[in-house]
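Quick check before the chapter quiz. The format below is the same one you will see on the exam, so make sure you can read both the input and the output lines.
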Amino acid sequence: MAGNLLASARAHRGQPSPDLAVGDDAVFGDATPGSAGLDGDWRADCVPSPYLRRPRGTVGLGDTFVGGILLAAGIPGLTA
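Here is the expected output.
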């Protein structure tokens, strides 16, 4: 969820921003697959991400998404 939040805020603003608000024009679909446990200790969690018809920027969104995952993984008590 942290990765989606940071990437969607960047797409909305067109650049990295401390303002993590989701854009007013964002649409969330309802076709998110369910989360499930995989083999061993692996797990797949699916969370909805906002769709922006006209994002202000798309460069670096994958890196921002991964950064959000790593940030959440480094916070004690949270699961990435």
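If your answer matched, good. The mean pLDDT is 86.
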